[in-house]
């Protein structure tokens, strides 16, 4: 029997819940802060602990058979993977925000404007669908400071409470996408008997919670 590999986030917002759901499936494994890989004692499975950004590609390329990662990260990576199950945690919304003093009320007013983001693919798709021609400034973090520095007219980012927006003189303008953690598989692995067994266990953990 082939040992499956599942990639989960090593540390960050999805790590704890990802470990928890696997433990609740009855999987027995050691979870040391320093480990990059753990072997499950009672199921043919190894757990790879990775940065979330790397998970979609690992699964697409079959280096991992399964993965748990935010939908936003999968779509941004453009990864071709099978979606098996939304997991009900890691929920967030990606929004366009503008300066609180801004008089922008229509999407069309973003034409010719600069938008700072770490999610250029998702943003470009949305702008194209809405016939907006804006300049995307791809920066890897702290996009909220962009407008105050004159780097951008708007930002596109994950917004949870709005507190970060407010403290940077910004306000939410458009919700573009909502996201949660999902279980994904390499294309073709969806029908593997052990994958199906694991999926069933995850689904009953989710049902017991609901
Ligand atoms: P890594 O070190 O693995 O690259 P990261 O810093 O990119 O981690 P986290 O901040 O841990 O990522 O967020 C992981 C995922 O959690 C996000 O991609 C998103 O799907 C989800 N998420 C839920 N709420 C939030 C939030 N308030 N801010 C950021 N991400 C959130
Ligand atoms: Zn990341």
UniProtKB/TrEMBL annotation:
It comes from the Bacteria. Its EC number is 2.4.2.17. Residues 51-203 form the ATP phosphoribosyltransferase catalytic domain. It is found in: Cytoplasm. Belongs to the ATP phosphoribosyltransferase family. Long subfamily. One of its GO terms (biological process) is L-histidine biosynthetic process. It catalyses: 1-(5-phospho-beta-D-ribosyl)-ATP + diphosphate = 5-phospho-alpha-D-ribose 1-diphosphate + ATP. Its main location: cytoplasm. This is ATP phosphoribosyltransferase. Pathway: Amino-acid biosynthesis; L-histidine biosynthesis; L-histidine from 5-phospho-alpha-D-ribose 1-diphosphate: step 1/9. Catalyzes the condensation of ATP and 5-phosphoribose 1-diphosphate to form N'-(5'-phosphoribosyl)-ATP (PR-ATP). Has a crucial role in the pathway because the rate of histidine biosynthesis seems to be controlled primarily by regulation of HisG enzymatic activity. Feedback inhibited by histidine. GO terms for cellular component: cytoplasm. Keywords: Amino-acid biosynthesis, ATP-binding, Cytoplasm, Glycosyltransferase, Histidine biosynthesis, Magnesium, Metal-binding, Nucleotide-binding, Transferase. Its cofactor is Mg(2+). One of its GO terms (molecular function) is ATP binding.
